[in-house]
Request: fold
Amino acid sequence: MSQPAERPSLKKILQMFEFKSEDLNKTFREAVAQKLIPPPLSQRKGPFVHEYYPMEEIHHIGRHLGFLKKWPTPMSLAFFTTKGGVLKTTLTLNFARMLALHGLKVLVIGLDMQGDVTRALGYQEEADENLPLDQMIEASLKTPGLYEYFAGRAKLEEVIVELSSHLHLIPETAELAALNDQLFNVNRREYWLLEKVIKPLRQNYDCILMDCSPNWNRLATNALVACDALVSPLECKINNFRNFKIFESFIGEFRKEMGLKFSQFFIPTLFSGQKKLSMDIRHWYHANLGECLKNGLRETTISEEASALNLSLVEHAPTSAAALEMKEILAEVMEALQEKQASSVDILLQKGQPQNIRHTRLS
Ligand SMILES: Nc1ncnc2c1ncn2[C@@H]1O[C@H](COP(=O)(O)OP(=O)(O)OP(=O)(O)O)[C@@H](O)[C@H]1O
Ligand SMILES: [Mg+2]
Reply:
């Protein structure tokens, strides 16, 4: 089903970007003829010619033919809800890889001490296996993370890992627990991430994604203060209702108290066409929550497989129903945010402050 990730076939790459049943083949050939996209590499296999691109070249195609277009002002998204296992990290992984495939510059910040998004993105510290064990352990303890930056023992650029030209990561380290603890003692403790990490890095990226744990902790409240949009998966299961009500009231109070204006998106997840109750719950969310997306992500093993391979659904199984759902989710969220960006730019222009446009946060 999935090609080796290093050199997917041209056919598969076009399927990754096809959206709403369009056929990109003709547009692709025209773009190559106009030299907007480098031509594919090819390899003869008997009577057939296999056309492909190396993985690191795909962003050229995404930039020209993908369904997402670059936006003028950087955006930051937090993936958070207080329920565990509802696909926060899966959504972060899929958003990150799909945005990067579209030629957008993405930074993922891991804020969960479990380190799930760091693992999901396939980041592993390179252990030099020729070293004795005690030196390997020592080397692994030295890898700096956000805590070392907070404590003044590392510079911000030293905690950023380049996974590819368009996808960077601030990986989770075990010391995030200490950061969470010590943030309690700083002034404006909810603003540390915004002031010290997001603001200095913002102009380097089109999108910053923060993957939170399901705990209402200091790292999560920092992510809420730092985000333009909160993305919260909503599990389509009956036991989620109570949790959701509490989460909604926490968020509402926090937002009001802190004067935050982030956009909010609820994404129904883990529903199944075979289970009537889960479909009823999905409909209830749609009918009752203004911020609920039209689209959601079903329960499916193909999505688990993709995550296990450190791939987005569109790379692993581009024609699957789940990949289409993921494309629709991404398009719906990004389009809503771009509309909001455009309207805040309009307001600034009306007020005669065009010089502020590039630095405007969504509000
Ligand atoms: N569509 C899917 N259907 C079923 N399981 C899935 C699907 N997509 C991903 N999974 C698997 O579900 C598990 C939980 O997903 P994920 O880690 O994204 O949840 P989470 O909300 O981030 O969890 P936590 O609260 O622990 O951080 C993972 O093992 C993941 O691979
Ligand atoms: Mg997670």
Notes: The CA atoms of residues 235 and 360 lie 33 Å apart.
